Each structure stands twice: as structure tokens, then as C-alpha cells.
């Protein structure tokens, strides 16, 4: 039995702490996802909070079959789209300064983000969900409501385009 299954068992038993446990379980990865879609950390945190509020509000309608993670990502994706439509988010600046100790990891994430930004819209989300959020292809299909084969082919095309960009000098120094 997974941690998620245990929490849903507690929910059915009426444990008042179960929703909080669910938030603690998924908060870091949903925040990381929203950071990819937000113009700043505060906006991302707002989106995460809204995501969990919606998820908890609709828990009574959700029938647990071990697919809560994709369900949560779907809510996060919709929330991010709604928020950014309202705010008309600014594009990522070309020069980003990092003061955190994980500078090289952050720099690599910026390079990755800039490469992903060049992809067609239908490929971007798949690449982000796969590599930034580490979802399985099946989970991505559930989040985006696409057949597994479509997810696979779009991911393959996106990776080929990224590879081509890097080979043509579109990597770190060419961006």
C-alpha cells in the first residue's frame, strides 16, 4: 500500500489530518511544476495554494484508484493557465542571476527552460512533465488527456528538436 493509498484510507475513515498529509506529500513537486509556469515564486506559490484548495474541495467527487497524482497535476495545469491568462505573465528574462548555493543546477534549469520555450506548445508541457516533474508517460497521458502513443511521439519529436538545437549551437552559449 502506497503512502497515497494510506492517506485516502484515512480520508474515508474521517481523519481530519488526512488532507494536510496529502498536501505535505505532493506540495514540493506541485510547487516545482508551478515554478516552471510562473513569472515568479510568489505567483507559483499562489497557484499551488489554489491547486490544493480546489483538490481538497473536490475530494468528495474523486474516487481513489491510485491516480491522484495525475489528477492533481491536471488541476495545477488548469490553475496555472487560468492564473497566467489573468496576469499576462512576462516572458523569462534572458539574464537571470542566482544567489543560491545550487548555482550550476539552477543554471542548467534555465538552459533547459530556454530550450523548452522554443518548442511548439503541444510539446512543451509533455517535456516539462516528463523531465522537470518526472511523471511517467502514462501519467502525462492522464494529465493531458492524450493517448499514450501520442505522448510518446510528441516527446520523441520534442527531444529530437532539442537535440538539433544543441548540435546547432543553441545550447548554453547560443541561447
From TrEMBL:
Residues 112-161 form the RNA polymerase sigma factor 70 region 4 type domain. One of its GO terms (molecular function) is sigma factor activity. Keywords: DNA-binding, Sigma factor, Transcription, Transcription regulation. Gene3D superfamilies: 1.10.1740.10, Winged helix-like DNA-binding domain superfamily/Winged helix DNA-binding domain. InterPro entries: RNA_pol_sigma-70-like, RNA_pol_sigma-70_dom, RNA_pol_sigma70_r2, RNA_pol_sigma70_r4_t2, RNA_pol_sigma_r2, RNA_pol_sigma_r3/r4-like, WH-like_DNA-bd_sf. The keyword Protein biosynthesis does not apply. Residues 22-88 form the RNA polymerase sigma-70 region domain. GO terms for biological process: DNA-templated transcription initiation. CDD domains: Sigma70_r4. Belongs to the sigma-70 factor family. ECF subfamily. NCBIfam families: sigma70-ECF. This is Sigma factor-like protein.
